[in-house]
Amino acid sequence: MPVMLEVSNHVAYVTLNRPEAMNSLDPESTADLTEIWARVRTDPDIRVAVLTGAGEKAFCTGTDMKKAPTPTECMAATYLRDGQPILPHMKMWKPIIAAINGYAVGGGLEMALACDLRIASSNAKFGLTEVKVASLAGLNGTQALPRAVPQAVAMKMLLTGEMITADEALRYGLVSDVVEPSGLADLAKSYAEKIASAAPLSVQATKQAAILGKDMPLEHGILYSHLLWGVLRDTEDRKEGFKAFGERRAPEFRGA
Ligand SMILES: CC(C)(COP(=O)(O)OP(=O)(O)OC[C@H]1O[C@@H](n2cnc3c(N)ncnc32)[C@H](O)[C@@H]1OP(=O)(O)O)[C@@H](O)C(=O)NCCC(=O)NCCSC(=O)/C(=C/c1ccccc1)CC(=O)O
């Protein structure tokens, strides 16, 4: 399978599985990912996802340039039907954690930028190198990178195609944690399990408030987040959370 999915304890583990090609995205991988993200978004048993790459060298190096299919229709038809090929499928209120285990290049870094948490192994490298292959970081890279790291760093990366190291990524805030390669999967699992043990509607509302609020004037963001708080106030899970606290036991959340 070009992409593997395992679901355990409310966590979907999504692994790009073409290590021989640096987990680059061939048409089969893209089709698998489309199905997998649809499942993650709609399966009530899944509360959070972890995206990583198989092997120790690469998270994902973007489009498989050796297998990129020849277009069969004009760009207008594709664009107006699908928009971006992968990232819309990652748009959901359930959190996605990128566990970046090596090169995150081109579309690979762009997928990581679409995730909510980014953690990396110490051997990871990050780049939007599309200018070197006569393309453009068209999966949001030109928009997301300058919003994720300082403008001067983003422009250097975008215009020169130069990569940065895991330590630099940590310094610029592109990732939250850098660990030895052997510790990455465990760290991803521990963050995912913490998120999965929290109230699912609360987690999703919090992501929505943070993501949508970022592009609102502060006053609007505050009002919007208060409305979301009100939406959660009447949930069964909130009653259960408060009750369990009083009874000194772990809450049992149902997403209701
Ligand atoms: C990452 C590297 C610097 C690693 O170099 P290294 O020397 O360590 O390893 P290699 O020998 O180069 O790689 C091993 C093996 O993997 C194959 N490989 C690696 N990456 C790719 C790839 N992207 N496509 C196909 N094959 C790949 C490599 O050929 C080797 O195979 P072998 O010869 O052994 O059979 C280095 O690998 C590197 O620079 N890779 C390319 C990174 C890159 O340029 N990525 C950008 C691709 S373009 C893109 O992602 C786009 C996304 C997009 C935008 C908009 C809409 C949709 C998609 C743009 C686009 O598609 O136009």
UniProtKB/TrEMBL annotation:
* Entry-linked InterPro entries: ClpP/crotonase-like_dom_sf (IPR029045), Enoyl-CoA_hyd/isom_CS (IPR018376), Enoyl-CoA_hydra/iso (IPR001753), Enoyl-CoA_hydra_C (IPR014748)
Which PROSITE patterns has this protein been placed in?
A: ENOYL_COA_HYDRATASE
Is the keyword Lyase in the record?
A: yes
- Recite the UniProt keywords alphabetically: Lyase
Q: Which Pfam families match?
A: ECH_1
Query: Which family does the record claim for this protein?
Result: Belongs to the enoyl-CoA hydratase/isomerase family.
Q: Could you identify this protein by its name?
A: Enoyl-CoA hydratase/isomerase family protein
Phylogenetic classification of the source organism: Bacteria, Pseudomonadati, Pseudomonadota, Betaproteobacteria, Rhodocyclales
